[in-house]
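Batch queue: ligand-bound targets. Current item pairs a single chain with zinc ion. No template structures supplied; prediction is de novo from sequence plus SMILES. Inputs echoed for audit trail.
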Amino acid sequence: MAATYIEVSATKIEAMMSQAGFSELSVPGCAERVFVRQHHVHSKVQVRVYTSLNRTSNTLRDVGKDRMRVTAFYTDGSEKNYNDVSRFLFGAKGVNRASGEQDGDAAMSAVLDRLLERMREVYALINKAPRCPKCSEPLREACSKKKGPNHKRPYTSCLKHGCGHFQWIDRVKDHA
Ligand SMILES: [Zn+2]
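Prediction returned. Tokens below.
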């Protein structure tokens, strides 16, 4: 049996975004509608919501690409040029629209509630992100993708242009 997906109306998403202080962002080359809000403390960090709403048809994307994602981006520079200067900071678990128990409006509200919760989560996590010891901007935590002895080794790095701070996060067991 094919999975069914909860339809979420574009109008409802727009209303929720504006209520939460988010505005629409046009991301070049991005097929879906994206909403954004700058963080009130970290002025260079923004929360972006990738809605899975198609930009042109304004309908939800094909089954399988049904996840709405909430991410934090570090934008170093003017907002107009954000695409050249914005870097992914971290993301939250996606919000699936796979149908559950509820139907119709109740199901749609449940999806939007989960999305809003995720938006708040990401916003709060930005406050808790470790700060760069050199410039005090929030640091990105990731794992090395390079093949070799450091493969999958976790590190923090600063996304601020020209800062260059980088540090391995060494797990205790590595030194045991
Ligand atoms: Zn820095």
